[in-house]
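pls ignore typos typing on phone
FE2/S2 (inorganic) cluster + seq
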Amino acid sequence: MPNITFSSPKMRKDVTVYAAAGDRTTILGVAKHHSVEIDCECEKGECGSCTVEVIHIGNKPPMAVHVTEKEKLTLLTSGKLKKSEFDELELLDLAPRYRLACQYMLLDEDIVVKF
Ligand code: FES
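k done
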């Protein structure tokens, strides 16, 4: 069962929630369910307003490494990541630091979400 800790200067304190094992939901979905207000406009991975920093914690290597072409394009367009950074991350099979909360599907891994 993954722990997701939301952290933001917009919140009085960090909030840690537990996502049900096997839930196929996004960071944004869990945030909304727990009344954590992450900016979002399109919820389709197109506007970049829901960009968050994802920090993996715990002993397991990051699982949600895959980034769709749409998410990649939006992150590149918003300037959060450079193409050279993406190329290097893909080569090493590593997850980028910045992700779209509406596109990041939660897996069984503990993360901190900063926004
Ligand atoms: Fe637009 Fe996530 S809300 S990219």
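The chain has a mean pLDDT of 90. Residues 65 and 93 are 7 Å apart (CA to CA). more later
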